[in-house]
Amino acid sequence: MSTVEIQGVRVGYGGVPVLQGLDLTVPTGTTTAVLGASGGGKTTLLRIIAGFLAPEAGTIHIGGRLVCGHGRSVPPERRGVGYVRQDGGLFPHLDVGGNITFGMPRAARRRRERVGELLELVGLPEGTAAKRPDQLSGGQQQRVALARALALSPQVVLLDEPFSSLDTALRASTRDAVATALAETGATTILVTHDQQEALSFADQVAIMRDGRFSQVGTPREIYESPVDVREAAFLGDVVRLPGRPTHEGVSCALGIVRSPGGSTPFASYDAVDLVVRPEDLTLADAPGCAHGTVLTTRYHGAHALVRVALTDGPEVSVRVAGRSVPHPGEIVPVRVDGPVLTYPSA
Ligand SMILES: Nc1ncnc2c1ncn2[C@@H]1O[C@H](COP(=O)(O)OP(=O)(O)OP(=O)(O)O)[C@@H](O)[C@H]1O
Predict the structure, then answer these.
(1) Checking CA distances to 121, which of 46, 252, 291, 326 falls within 20 to 30 Å?
(2) Measuring from each residue's beta carbon to the nearest atom of ligand 1, which residues come in under 6 Å?
């Protein structure tokens, strides 16, 4: 069992608070992505879990064992934690084999087959062992960094934005290889990232860090489909935000009367609400009584395109359409909701 339990963790630098009371449980063998803006304190949290930094308050348990808090601090090398830094952090003067075996006990270092096993686990050929880090691509270096972290069979693996320096194609393939390797070892994993797509696609659980706290913790679907407020909805992806007025039929807004999927009218007791809908949940298909507007701009992305439409007598909205059916600027198009909507009390 290697569940990570973080309770009430607080820390700051030079009197400036960074983490202001974090609570998080990462169940054994699962992956949690900590998603937050740059400078929010994600690396600071990993350093505390690894034992490189002591919190001012709070506790951390790994596999039920208190590793920090209540006046106790287990040193990093005895926490059973592997850490992969953003830049990989390989030793340039050692070959790949030397990097992987660096922290191993002397007897284990002689077992060359262990290096081969670890390289295979992260999807690299055995011959990579004799190469120097500067002979490898960025993605290969990150896989070696993971192999080095896994060499000591850690219960917990901490990944600090390990894919952020890689280009799109390499990032996806490296991420897949790392996810497969981690699943095989059964390690409990915490990934920190400011990349929403990465968090949603890589993790079993996502924790949104905001102002030194977790504003929401849930499955990727819960986080994306039911963000706690408009700010979080916008942080997780493109949103169309419209002022609305609850009526007994639904929420009245520039797109007409919009009903929530359950048919209920949330916040019916409020005079005004913010209605939030994702561009992919709007469509340019006609329907009786739907809104119309003029296409202002189109942004082509290959598989899809983002179309900006000025609604007649209303605000501008973005609609995501298939890349093969993009209208032209100036065209008059129908716009209607074709998916879930979120409503929040007006700020
Ligand atoms: N050793 C330090 N001394 C003083 N301030 C620090 C130190 N380390 C981090 N900070 C500050 O603490 C805040 C949180 O930094 P941290 O690196 O944890 O954020 P992050 O979310 O990981 O950012 P990024 O996504 O850019 O890596 C930042 O404002 C940073 O400037």
Answers:
(1) 46
(2) 13, 18, 36, 38-44, 194
